[in-house]
Amino acid sequence: MKSYLFLLCILFCFACSKDKDSGLPDLPDIPEEQATLSISSSRFLFSSDGGTDTLSIVSNYTWTITAADAWCQPSVFSGFGDIDVQVLAKANPDTEDRITRWVINAGRFCSDTVYFSQSFKDGNLNFSDVELQKYLLKNYDKNHDGYLSVSEAREVMGIAIQGNYLNLDGLNYFPELRLLSCCPLNFDSQFGLQKLDVSHNKYLMSLDCRFNQLAELDLSRNLGLEYLWCSSNKITTLDLKNHKDLKSLYCDDNQITKLGLPENAMLEDLVCDNNQLASLDVNSCPNLKFLLCGDNPIQNLEITNCPQLASLSFPKQLESLKISNNSGLQKLSNISHDGCTTQLKFLEIENCTKLQSVSWGSIEEGQLYSLSIKDCPILEKLDCWDNQVTNLNISGCTSLAELDCARNQLTTLDVSGYTSLKELYCYGNQLTTLNVSGCTSLKVLWCYDNQLTTLDVSSCTSLEKLTCYSNPNLKTIYKKKGQDINILAPLYVEIIEL
């Protein structure tokens, strides 16, 4: 029995000895942080036909290769010591160059990266739209062989077509394109693009696709875009939040319900009228100079910190408007190209240092009942007649020369100290108190049809004409002694000279 067990032990040891000598190398016991790695080259270039090359790897530690793309693969993915790895690159069937990489790791602390690039496959291109093919051959067939090659297409930087094109399939052949204009010949015709793919034109700077039939426009790959005209389409959503270089945007006459604008952008001109926008945020556009957003269901609009803004127009349905810190704004009016904004209830203007005039009178009966204009030092003219104003604040408007707030619902009006004021029209209100003290430049004062009881114009040394009839409670008018004023008032009113 003992002999039998002894024989089994000998056989077992012999088997282990064979496994140990099976030809596998003995790996040195090196700490991971002492691993080293070197490669023969970090960059390889292949033609469009593909091929093979050799990458030599030397390391004192076990290494692994991670390949990013299937078109370029190693002959082995792991090893140890000095090994020549074969690089196997497949043929490139595309018309664009391509690039990939391998990451080689020797443990956790030692790695290197190898980059592989491959040129595009040249050849002659065909376009499904016959008219487009004719245009391209006429303008870009440099060798006049009757074909447009991939090489010729790659040199094209601008395409401006106008005609009855059904599609622009093949724009991916023009990777260097900077300008694209593709408006139909007849704006109201049955022709017009229903889709437009510019995802391969990442250098595009200017796009004009007006008067087509586009329902969507994906510009997520065109982050260098500076000028966009996509008016008169059927677009419902336009996302430009990442387009920091955008300077001009005309997207009017669409069906846009959501418009995403970039923050701190270069945007100067924005025309988005005649859409379905319920809100609009332009406060992150400090370079904005021109804004047209009429014919939208916007009810509340805030325009803040747009110091370059010089011209803007609003929707008719607007109910609340707040404008502040817009030093470039010179004029503001409720009259726009699409009519008069008559639904506005709140108007607040603050710190618009170049604002010269505000015209918010209403041909129809307006709804404005709160008007605040503060710290606009060169404002000269303010019209807000025929509204429902109960609260009027004009503090800090020291250059005001003409104020027309007639036919509102004011009960008090204080313009004391406004030494530049020359004309004041406040008739047709509910005024019980009117303070014009210190208005030394005032020449014309119309305050009839109110509820005044007394009126003191003694410090209005330049006053020439005073109209104050239809104040049934008016008893006394105070004026400066010897002052020659043309006064139109009821006979029972006592005029006292001071």
Question: What does the model show?
Answer:
About 5% of the residues lie in helices and about 30% in strands. It has 3 helices and 41 strands. It has an 8-stranded parallel sheet with strand order 12-13-14-15-17-19-20-22, with no helix packed on it. The chain has an 8-stranded parallel sheet with strand order 24-28-30-32-34-36-38-40, with no helix packed on it. Strands 2-9-8-4-6 form a 5-stranded mixed sheet, with no helix packed on it. A hairpin with a 2-residue loop joins strand 25 and strand 26 (about 340). The chain has a domain at about 35-120: Immunoglobulin-like (Sandwich), CATH 2.60.40.10. Mean pLDDT is about 90; it is low at about 1-25. The protein is mainly beta and about 500 residues long. The chain starts with a helix and ends with a strand. The radius of gyration is 39 Å and the shape is elongated.
Spell out the key features of this protein.
498 residues, mainly beta, Immunoglobulin-like, eight-stranded parallel β-sheet, 31% strand, elongated, disordered N terminus, signaling adaptor activity, LRR_dom_sf, leucine-rich repeat, EF_hand_dom
Strand-helix topology:
Blueprint: H1 2-20, E1 37-39, E2 43-46, E3 51-59, E4 63-67, E5 72-74, E6 78-79, E7 83-89, E8 98-106, E9 111-118, E10 124-125, H2 130-140, E11 148-149, H3 150-154, E12 158-162, E13 179-183, E14 206-208, E15 227-229, E16 237-239, E17 248-250, E18 258-260, E19 269-271, E20 290-292, E21 300-304, E22 311-313, E23 320-324, E24 331-333, E25 335-336, E26 339-340, E27 346-350, E28 357-359, E29 370-374, E30 381-383, E31 391-393, E32 402-404, E33 412-414, E34 423-425, E35 433-435, E36 444-446, E37 454-456, E38 465-467, E39 476-479, E40 486-488, E41 494-497
